Amino acid sequence: MTSPVTTHASPFLLALLLLLSIPVVFLLGPRLLPPKTLPAIPDADESDDLALFRRAILSSSSAKPATTSYFFHRRPRPKVAFLFLTNSDIVFSPLWEKYFHGHRKLFNLYVHADPYSVLELPPTPTFRGRFVPAKATQRASPTLISAARRLLATALLDDPSNQFFALLSQSCIPLHPFPTMYKTLLSDNAGPHGHHRSFIEITDNTSILHDRYYARGDAVMLPEVPYDQFRAGSQFFVLTRRHAIMVVRDMRLWKKFKLPCLVERNYSCYPEEHYFPTLLDMQDPAGCTKYSLTRVNWTDQVEGHPHTYHPGEVSANLIRELRKSNAKYSYMFARKFAPECLEPLMEIADSVILRD
Ligand SMILES: *[C@@H]1O[C@H](CO)[C@@H](O)[C@H](O)[C@H]1NC(C)=O
Ligand SMILES: *[C@@H]1O[C@H](CO)[C@@H](O)[C@H](O)[C@H]1NC(C)=O
Ligand SMILES: *[C@@H]1O[C@H](CO)[C@@H](O)[C@H](O)[C@H]1NC(C)=O
Fold first, then answer.
1. What are the backbone angles phi and psi of residue 211, rounded to the nearest 5°?
2. Residue 204 CA from chain centroid, whole number
3. Cis peptide leading into 115, omega within 30 of 0?
4. Mean pLDDT, the chain, as a whole number?
């Protein structure tokens, strides 16, 4: 039996409940619905990076070229910082050991390994103790940009002699002996005022540009990044020290490129292929070659992955073929090679790869 009071009150109660439910839907709704964007970079990672970048900028602006001591010491020769970005074992390290052998004074090495990846092989001598504090990285995410900037900042801070910064991955191999690469970087002085240039691919004519620009949303890139200044290019670059500082110093474009992509546009989410070329093309186009020294084979690509060479394909002819370039300089590195290629690569290391 219901009391007459409840019967009379129920329309009022219903209306009240309805009214109360509005803020509940607003507050909880977004949490219950699937997210519209891919995961954003954690704030803690961002603030750690900012602190590191500030230190790198500060130390780079205070580091004066030696003047008095110049007369007493020989000025150190410029070094190349090799920056390995990886989420697995650096299987080709025996090949890199051969490559670096005898050139200790001309390079430094730094490795950013995703802390969630499982590395099983013990590091070979040159890689030992060269792992920098790393954070999680994912595909289709600006975390790959962060990792590259972290490597640049760490190398800037570590040694003022680091004058070139080469970004590589675990699936990259060298194509020429170390001295050939070194001479190439140092002999190029076609930048403004006779400066060395960065070897970074910069293009604006690819069909992917439109989708890549809108991957984070419809008008989100403006006003910092107008569509006509948006560029594409491989992240496997060699930057000069001046450009490495420029990249670590940037906050303006990063504010936009760090935005996570929309889930529904995840197939267009490769921010690391746009951030660096866009930034450098805006700030110093004449200081860049606009092509990369790292060869990659995009024939028959699968889901954004280039052709991966397998052991049966490795030969002296392949190496000679991969070196060939239409640009002024021959290719110095190549990707991607499957881990199983180590053995056939080692077999031709002395006779082909490390001989010109
Ligand atoms: C795009 O531009 C680059 C360099 O400016 C050039 O090498 C390439 O052939 C061009 N590609 C197309 C499809 O026009
Ligand atoms: C994009 O999302 C779909 C479905 O969620 C997934 O299958 C695919 O692997 C994702 N692609 C990339 C490049 O992350
Ligand atoms: C590029 O990859 C394709 C297969 O995807 C292969 O047929 C071709 O020989 C490769 N090119 C070079 C120069 O290795």
1. -65, -35
2. 19
3. no
4. 91
Closest CA to 56 of 151, 131, 148, 132: 151
Report whether 267 contacts 230 (CB < 8 A). Answer: no
Average pLDDT of the residues in 176-190: 96
Candidates 138, 161, 125; CA nearest to 241 is: 161
When pLDDT is averaged across residues 156-185 and rounded to a whole number, the result is: 98
What whole-number distance in Å separates Cα of residue 156 and Cα of residue 306? 31
The overall longest dimension of the chain from CA atoms, in Å, is 105
Of all atoms in ligand 2, which is nearest to the CA of residue 304?
13
CA-to-CA dists, residue 110 to 128, 168, 207, 243, angstroms:
10, 10, 34, 18
Query: Both tokens of residue 246?
Result: 């420029």
Tokens standing for 306? 């280039």
E-assigned strand segments in the chain: 79-86, 107-113, 162-169, 173-174, 198-201, 238-240, 288-290, 294-295, 333-334
**One-letter amino acid for residue 226 of the chain:** P
Q: Is residue 84 scored above 60 in pLDDT? A: yes
Reported as a single tens digit per residue, the pLDDT across 292-302 is 999 999 998 88
CA–centroid distance, 299 to ligand 3, in Å, is: 6
Ligand 1 in reach of 326 Cβ (< 6 A): no
pLDDT score for 61: 82
* Residue 226, burial from CB neighbour count under 10 angstroms (0-12, 13-18, 19+): exposed
Specify the ligand 3 atom closest to the Cα of 318.
14
Nearest alpha-carbon partner for 198 in 177, 213, 184: 184
Domains of the chain: 43-61+77-353 (3.90.550)
- The pLDDT of residue 1 is 45
CB under 6 Å to ligand 2: residues? 139-140, 266-267
